[in-house]
Amino acid sequence: MPGPNRKPVEKPKNFKGTIKQLIAYSKPYYGRIILSLVLMIISTCMCIYGPKLIGNATTLLATGIVNKYKGGTGIDFDALGKIVLILIGIYVVSAIIDFFVNFIHVGIATDVTYRLRKDISEKINKLPLKYFDSKTHGEILSRITNDVDNIANNLTSTVSQVLNSMINIVGVLAMMLILSWKLTLIALLIIPLSGILAALIVKKSQKYFSANSKYLGEVNGHVEEMYSGHLIVKAYNYEDDAIEKFDDLNGKLLDASFKSQFYSAIMHPITGFLGNLTYVIVCLVGGFEAINGRMNIGDIQAFITYVRRLNQPITSIAQLLNTIQSMAAAAERVFEVLNETEEEPDILTPINVRNENGELQIKGNVTFENVKFGYDPNKIIIHDFSMYVEPGKNVAIVGPTGAGKTTLVKLLMRFYELNGGTIYVDFHNIKEYTRHDLREMFGMVLQDTWLFEGTIKENIRFSKPDATDEEIVEACKMAHVDHFIRTLEKGYDTVISEESSGISQGQKQLLTIARAFLADPKILILDEATSSVDTRTEQLIQDSMEKLRKGRTAFTIAHRLSTIKNADIILVLNEGDIVEVGDHTSLMEKNGFYAKLYNSQFEG
Questions:
Q1: pLDDT band at 5 (very low <50, low <70, confident <90, very high)
Q2: Among residues 291, 364, 327, which one has the least CA distance to residue 162?
Q3: What's the pTM value of the predicted model, to 2 decimals?
Q4: Cα 574 from chain centroid (whole Å)
Q5: Amino acid 6: pLDDT
Q6: Residue 428: burial class (beta carbons within 10 Å; 0-12, 13-18, 19+)
Q7: In this model, does residue 4 exceed pLDDT 90?
Q8: Among 27, 156, 293, 598, which residue's CB has the most CB atoms within a 10 Å radius?
Q9: Are the beta carbons of 174 and 306 closer than 8 angstroms?
Q10: Confidence of residue 528 (pLDDT cuts 50, 70, 90)
Q11: Residue 129 neighbours by CB under 8 Å, 6+ apart
């Protein structure tokens, strides 16, 4: 029976297409699926024949008692014993078969879960970055976790229940027709009536469940909003208005909740009444048939059992349809990821830039030639940009918030494909390198100090998995973070986690700089945001970055313009377009956009 917080069933956009794809995806498991289906048919048929045998036993007992009363031989216990032994055998074998069927289904479910998660994980690594721009992290994680779990939990169990119910319906109907076509016709006239009434009640109640879910969300949202902002509510004397709004929403919730629960409550008595009515009519008609010698008592008993068993799979299928819809919707979202267009594949014959020891050998030249790019092909934001950066030069990228300072960085590392033009590294088109080699040329220190749960040593070694402990310590010394690490109780073996309250944001930034030192890249990408750190830590970060830049080609995303006065080249961006290029002195002399931006940071 539906609960008070029941939500409308989520439906897929293309149910038939999703089911076809799901069937195709299950191809490796066809053998096990067919085996389980055959075993299910055998088990179900055996169980369906059980009530007929019980009916035969009942007839045997009734006949024996009547014969005994008339002075005959009485009950045939030998025949009765054989029936009992056959019944025990049927139910034991059926139980064993069900055990193996469940074993097969669990195996399929876990294999499908493993394979889906593996395929999604591999797919995510092949998707272009623009895909993630249109999806939230929570949405992608939900597809890997919740949606895959939904499929795995329901793919075998739900489908097997539906198949089992259908086999039951066919088998039970066949047995009912064998016993009495008249009683079968009566049952089939009443059972659909029960289904029609149930469907009407569900249709009537669905809007109240939707309303209940809607108003419950609004009540919770209102309470959370008023609670989190209770200081503002009190400051502006909004308490009475807040209570009035809550009363209004709560009243609507009460009305929707009452009606939804009322309709849910009446479904069971109505269907129960029709079911009992079926049994009464079957007993009456069956009694007349028995009196006239056309049926025996055991067959009537068996028929009543079959009527009860016929109701169960019909109800089960009706309930499982919603689960199948939900599973198909989850599968649709998962297949949307698996069917996404992957990023352009690497060139078949890439340039080899490694020496005999497998180390990258590049100088660090970077050239932009007539580069055109837009996140949306119809909205180009970099129209025709050309620039040559010599090895070891420091290029600063500046501009107001939202100007697109990270765009050039993303293009450099080929996170996005250009709409026009070419980018060269060491005079080779970046498409001539594999993405792995290209991205290994770069070291990154971003404003978002990403550190995973693990020791400090493991976090720094992330950029160079084969690094020795001595190399890690030396990198930390270069980044001015070695002294801090040694003050920790476990030093380099200190575990970093979300609960690590002893490590500040600035110290985390220094750890990411140490990670870049360890990688020793030829080209650097630095985001020097230090707005959330104290003055001393900011100076340490600036010194570390300055050390890191020496001898390397560096692209620095600058937030405080005073820190990039010595940059060799300054790219000035505004609204996604490059408006000025030059060094600090020449740009200040122009008294253009850069000069206004620079002066605005020192006004007052």
A1: very low
A2: 327
A3: 0.65
A4: 37
A5: 46
A6: middle
A7: no
A8: 156
A9: no
A10: low
A11: 410, 415, 416
CB 429 within 8 A of CB 384: no
Question: 124 in the Ramachandran plot: left (φ > 0), alpha (ψ -120 to 50) or beta?
Answer: alpha
User: At which residue do the structure tokens 């076809």 appear?
Assistant: 20
User: Strand, helix or coil at 448?
Assistant: coil
The Cα–Cα gap between 317 and 324 comes to 10
Rounded to the nearest 5°, which phi and psi values hold at 397?
-115, 115
Q: Which of 571, 562, 567, 556 is closest to 523 using CA atoms?
A: 556
Question: For 136, left (φ over 0), alpha (ψ -120 to 50), or beta?
Answer: beta
Judged by average pLDDT, the poorest of 68-82, 93-107, 114-128 is 68-82
- Quote the crossing angle between the two packed helices 469-478 and 505-519, to the nearest 10°: 120
Dmax over Cα atoms in the chain, in whole Å?
128
Q: What is the pLDDT of residue 602?
A: 65
| DSSP string for 9-49 | PP--SSHHHHHHHHHHHTGGGHHHHHHHHHHHHHHHHHHHH
Q: Give residues with Cβ within 8 angstroms of 467, minimum separation 6.
A: 460, 461, 475, 518
At position 462, the amino acid (one-letter code) is F
Give the rounded distance of the alpha carbon of 540 from its chain centre: 41
Q: How far apart are the first and last CA of the chain?
A: 68
One-letter identity of residue 139? E
pLDDT for position 93: 92
User: What pLDDT score was predicted for residue 3?
Assistant: 43
Three-state SS for 195? helix
* Buried b / exposed e along 387-396 (16+ C-beta atoms within 10 A): eebeebbbbb
Residue-wise DSSP of 521-566: -SEEEEE---TTS-HHHHHHHHHHHHHHHTTSEEEEE-SSGGGGTT
CA distance 396 to 94: 75
Does residue 96 carry a pLDDT above 90? yes
Q: Is the pLDDT of residue 10 over 90?
A: no
